[in-house]
Amino acid sequence: MKIALPIVNGKLSLHFGHCQSFALVEADKNSREIKETEYTQPPPHEPGVLPKWLHDLGAELIIAGGMGQRAQKLFNDNNIEVIVGAESDTPENVVKEYLNNTLTTGSNLCDH
């Protein structure tokens, strides 16, 4: 599966819309292994652009610190599952926690 994470300064961005890049992590959910991590620059942040762009890149899941309700709906409309409330850490650590069912999430850090 391919997991997308918004990144700022090498770690998970706590606010989805303020990320500098995206980490696209290819992972095997059965073996719980990370196969590859690729960093890519997103297109300009405009409503509706990122969900389609990430869908076209093959993302099936996005993990973020915070994301507005409208953005979450747009991701769901593009068949991308959304997990919010994750803490800032490296993409590999966040994905390892997800794969091992130890990812702790708190409140959605975005309220719009």
From TrEMBL:
Domain Dinitrogenase iron-molybdenum cofactor biosynthesis residue range list: 10-99
CDD domains with a match to the protein in the record: MTH1175
Leader sequence segment: none
Gene3D superfamilies according to UniProt: Dinitrogenase iron-molybdenum cofactor biosynthesis domain
InterPro entries: Di-Nase_FeMo-co_biosynth, DiNase_FeMo-co_biosyn_sf, MTH1175_dom
Protein name as annotated: Dinitrogenase iron-molybdenum cofactor
